[in-house]
Amino acid sequence: MLSLLSATAQGDRKAFAELYQASSKQLYAVSLKMLKRKELAEEALQEAYVRIWHNASQYRAGKGTVLTWMISIARYRALDILRYHSVRKEEALSDNQVAVTPSSEPMTETQQGLLEKCMGSLDVQQRQAIHLAYFNGMSHHEVTAHLDLPLGTIKSWIRRGLQSLQRCLKL
């Protein structure tokens, strides 16, 4: 993916299309998990790829993989959408509003099983902190308030948990 992102940074539309094909399922899955509604997840995905197109040259390999960088962009777009809808006082998004059919499922059963296995291998605290931060879209400060624990503890749990997930998933 690094070569595709590098070519995208040079304005190569074909490379960008290939990058989209290689990564859109993962980014959509993150967005859908956070937003719970297909139309909002699609909006977040579109905004994330616009940002990726414009900021491809800003990627730094020492800070993580290309996919990790792209997922963080999608996650921040989803958080922006959550905040926007929260401010507008729209109805709370609930799990039962997601209507994903098996044919539109963004991850294969094998990928989903591996993710569940890897999440299950984490300490309970790490799993809970990651779930609140990445799947519920909470900031570190919101997780701290929710769990009534120090910020440093939450950040450590999340960092160590993500490192364990990365090793388990071999990203």
From TrEMBL:
Boundaries of every RNA polymerase sigma-70 region domain copy: 19-85
InterPro entries according to UniProt: RNA_pol_sigma-70-like, RNA_pol_sigma-70_dom, RNA_pol_sigma70_r2, RNA_pol_sigma70_r4_t2, RNA_pol_sigma_r2, RNA_pol_sigma_r3/r4-like, WH-like_DNA-bd_sf
Annotated RNA polymerase sigma factor 70 region 4 type domain residues: 114-165
UniProt cross-references to SUPFAM superfamilies, sorted A to Z: Sigma2 domain of RNA polymerase sigma factors (SSF88946), Sigma3 and sigma4 domains of RNA polymerase sigma factors (SSF88659)
Source taxon at top rank: Bacteria
Acetylation is among the record's keywords: no
One Pfam family, short name: Sigma70_r2
UniProt KW keywords: Sigma factor, Transcription, Transcription regulation
Record carries keyword Transcription: yes
PANTHER family per the UniProt record, alphabetical: RNA POLYMERASE ECF-TYPE SIGMA FACTO, RNA POLYMERASE SIGMA FACTOR SIGZ
Family of the protein in this entry: Belongs to the sigma-70 factor family. ECF subfamily.
Name the record gives this protein: RNA polymerase sigma-70 factor, ECF subfamily
